[in-house]
Amino acid sequence: MRVLGVDPGLTRCGVGVVDGRPGRPGTLVFVDVVRTDPDLELGDRLLHLSRELTRHIAEHRPQEVAVERVFAQHNVRTVMGTAQAGAVAVLAAAQAGLPVRMYTPSEVKAAITGSGQADKRQMTAMVTRLLRLDSPPRPADAADALALAICHTWRGTAQSRLAAALAAQRNPGGRS
């Protein structure tokens, strides 16, 4: 399965594409950080982000998209920018007809390192090891995007199958 991971941010948005299967090391397909100029108007920044994410989806053809879920921070302005960038990522995926799953930072950390409290250094080291990279992806936004893609490869597919099985159990034979 090919997954596009997005670590949303208004100034720096990590984008990573991984091919993988549950329980197996993945393969790096692509990683980048989309940057926007903080001096530009908000609409222009979001439009640039939308165009870049749409381009990456068209170029790398992921089957699913994983986006980091915004969590509360002390800086409301940072939270708003992150939420807006996350919404743009979800919209770009929806426009391409791709399913999207959102993960909290602690879910991703637990999937990648075994600890929901892992720091950036530990996350980057594990992403480097899991994808068998020669050097760590930089900056941290790039490593975080790859971690999201790996997390979804391992957890999201199982969650999707479980949800489908539960839906079938509640609605045997597909009757409404």
What does this structure look like?
It is a single chain. 51% of the residues lie in helices and 18% in strands. With 176 residues, the protein is α/β, with parallel strands linked by helices. It has one domain: Ribonuclease H-like superfamily/Ribonuclease H (Nucleotidyltransferase, domain 5). It has a 5-stranded mixed sheet, sandwiched between helices. α1 crosses α2 (76-95), α3 packs across α5 (140-170) and α4 (120-130) crosses α5 (140-170). The radius of gyration is 16 Å and the shape is globular. Mg(2+) 2 binds at residue 68. It is found in: Cytoplasm. Belongs to the RuvC family. This is Crossover junction endodeoxyribonuclease RuvC. Keywords: Cytoplasm, DNA damage, DNA recombination, DNA repair, DNA-binding, Endonuclease, Hydrolase, Magnesium, Metal-binding, Nuclease.
